[in-house]
Amino acid sequence: DGIMTGIEYDDFLDLGYEPAGTELVCEFTIEPAAGMSMEAAASRVASESSNGTWAALHVDEDELTELGAVACGIDGRTVTVAYPTALFEAGSMPQILSCIAGNILGMKAVDSIRLEDCDWPESITSGFPGPQFGPSVAREKLDAGERPVLATVPKPKVGLSTDAHARIGEEAWRGGVDLLKDDENLTDQAFNPFADRLAESLAARDRAQEETGERKDYLVNVTAETTEMLERVDLVAEHGGGFVMVDVITCGWAAVQSVRERCEDHGLAIHAHRAMHAAFDRLDHHGVSMRVIAQIARLCGVDHIHTGTAGLGKLANEDTPGINEWLTSDCHGLRPVLPVASGGLHPGVVDQLIDALGTDIIVQAGGGIHGHPDGTHAGAKALRQSVEASMAGTDLETYADDHAELATALEKWGAETPR
Ligand code: RUB
Ligand code: MG
Q1: C-alpha distances out from residue 362 to 178, 243, 305, Å
Q2: Are β-strands 179-181 and 217-221 bridged in parallel, bridged antiparallel, or unpaired?
Q3: Ranges in the chain, pLDDT < 50
């Protein structure tokens, strides 16, 4: 008769339901609102994020039940929801997020809710490209071999002239880092225009390659409005760069998807910076976890992404080892992503960092290189020495006995974590 009776908020719960392998399974942490049971809150989450609303609807019941998500597990504050893939537009990250990280984050039925983890079925991952290179950049585009890739970001983060920026980059490359990276708030400002910086920095890179005999490259920040960003990507390729940097959350996943496609045309790798992630992931009871943000980034196809420092740097972090493990684990044939440890790192913590995260990482340091008492060149040498010591299993203090730059860095910073 076309009138729905029975499909309401509370009908999206089935604790005996076993999700099919084709379904997207999401794990949430939920704090129900006062007077709301966990079951009722869980059912409302499944309803609002799939095809339900607050009122019973006068439509065909069969259609609705087929696309409805099912809250199928409750364990303490953890709720598991299974979504049929027919709900989703394959290959559209914005559409997927509008479901699983959309209205539900603001529902009055919950005091707080956090999307913690997703189990992505092949029917969804196959709509996405995944990374073009991932960890292979260490050997395909650079000469890092088995050690971590080393990167630096000039400081101050904005305000350096183009000349000064390129000069700092050249000193760091000559001192032993592989990659120069723009800081997140440096794009195309009057004091340091994008096109000039690109040309000068790549010229400096070529000189540094010539001098050191190692391949070096530049993570130039192309972040902008999408059309503009794609033009910047083209320009990087024209000038012979091998990488672009994109601030993936501030520019948005749809733009990242466009950049990924354009980078494939040029064979460019994508370095994903994650400014604004803490708006989602800093509170441990609400938002979207960094683990899920990293998953989304892998599907969309970035080659590197910042995942924190396992607590050894200046920023509050989540479970860096667990996120990195996911980024390099099997995901229906998608290539892995190379994780970036960054934020407050310096030579004195590199051994602990490698102990915590292994060697398949990028170690990125700004202040920890340019703040070296003897300047950028010495700072880069100190970082490289500290990686060499860690790779050889030699204690940093011992290695510093005949490595002056490392000795000076250790005198200044010890093995302390900054704040
Ligand atoms: C690091 C830096 C990066 C932060 C971002 O500079 O500028 O933007 O690493 O953090 P410094 P995250 O080495 O001087 O701290 O990597 O956690 O996203
Ligand atoms: Mg920065």
Answers
A1: 10, 14, 9
A2: parallel
A3: 1-5
Q: Three-class SS of residue 161?
A: coil
Q: Using CA atoms, how far apart are residues 304 and 318, in angstroms rounded to an integer? A: 17
Q: Which residues contact 336 (CB under 8 A, 6 or more apart)?
A: 131, 134, 135, 298, 327, 328, 329
Q: Is-catalytic flag, 155?
A: yes
Residues shown for the chain:
419
Using the Cα atoms of residue 84, residue 90, residue 93 and residue 95 in order, give the sign of their dihedral: negative
Burial status of residue 212 (CB atoms within 10 A of its CB: 0-12, 13-18, 19 or more): middle
Cα 286 to ligand 2 centre (Å)? 25
Among candidate residues 141, 165, 181, 273, the one labeled active-site is 273
Nearest ligand atom owner, CA of 367: 1
Q: What is the per-residue pLDDT for 419? A: 82
Ligand at minimal distance from the CA of 345 is 1
Say how many C-beta atoms besides its own lie within 10 A of residue 241's C-beta: 22
The DSSP code sequence of 31-95 is EEPTT--HHHHHHHHHHHTTT--SS--SS-HHHHHHH--EEEEEETTEEEEEE-GGGS-TT-HHH
| 24 closest CA partner among 92, 106, 86 | 86
Alpha-helical runs (H) found in 186-252: 194-212, 226-238, 248-251
Question: For 63, phi and psi rounded to 5 degrees?
Answer: -55, -45
Backbone angles phi, psi at 199, to 5 degrees: -65, -45
- Residue 252: left if φ>0, alpha if ψ -120 to 50, beta else—which one? left
pLDDT on residue 5: 46
* Residue 166: strand, helix, or coil: helix
- Is residue 332 flagged as an active site residue? no
Report ipTM for this prediction. Answer: 0.94
Give every strand in the sheet of 110-119, ordered side by side: 70-75, 78-83, 24-32, 110-119, 287-288
**pTM for this prediction:** 0.96
What is the torsion angle, in degrees rounded to the nearest 10, for the CA atoms of residue 259, residue 262, residue 267 and residue 271?
-10
Summarize pLDDT for 380-404 with one digit per residue, the tens: 999 999 999 999 999 999 999 999 9
Q: Alpha carbon 277 to chain centroid distance?
A: 9
Q: How far apart are CA 305 and CA 316, in angstroms?
A: 16
